[in-house]
Amino acid sequence: MQRILVAGITGAGKTTMAQALSARLQLPFHEMDALVFTGPGWTVDSDFHQQVAKIAATPAWIFDSFGHPEVRDLLWTGADTVIWLDYPRAVVMPRVLRRSLRRTLLRERVFGGNVETLSSWFSGDHPAWSSWTEHAGRRAEIDRRTTDPRFAPLNVIHLRSPREATAWLRGRPHPTSG
Predict the structure, then answer these.
(1) Residues 99, 77 contacting (CB under 8 angstroms)
(2) What single string gives the DSSP state of each residue in 23-57?
(3) Keywords in UniProt for this one (predicted)?
(4) Between the CA of residue 136 and those of 125, 132, 133, 150, 178, what are the distances in Å?
(5) pLDDT per position as a tens digit, 67-94
(6) 67: left (phi > 0), else alpha (psi -120 to 50), else beta?
(7) d(Cα 33, Cα 49) in Å, to the nearest integer?
(8) 164-169 long-range contacts, Cβ below 8 Å, gap at least 24?
(9) N or C: which end of the chain has fewer CB within 10 A?
């Protein structure tokens, strides 16, 4: 495990898992949304693809993403492992709602200094809406990719609950122990 994608729907805990793996395995972690959104108004970095390609060309990395469309195949081709956080809506929706509510009420700055606003909750690309509407489609796409010969050989670790993920992470060896 040297080039790892932590995949799943919004609210599954991809960033948390990726950061924990990064610390445990001593591999560099890259937060996808921080690479994409680099300025106010959710400005997308014009060099996003080049930045991700440069990182993907290195021997070791962890991304907390299924992959934005413009870099998805690049990451899936370069990965050796996919950690799939495949949680039901009943798990992810309370998580994403709590996170977005906290961010909105506390005006927490996220990627590129942006904030979630009350009006953004009514947008189709708000995390709560996207998590709800994309759940089945994202699940089907990740499932398809995990068996696609284009991405073989790919080690897939399919975790179906937070409890299963925690147990798996606790069982991961430290880099010095093999």
Answers:
(1) no
(2) HHHT--EE-HHHHHEEETTTEEPTTHHHHHHHHHT
(3) Kinase, Transferase
(4) 16, 9, 8, 22, 37
(5) 889 999 999 999 999 999 999 999 999 9
(6) left
(7) 13
(8) 165/13, 165/17, 165/85, 169/17, 169/20, 169/21, 169/24
(9) C
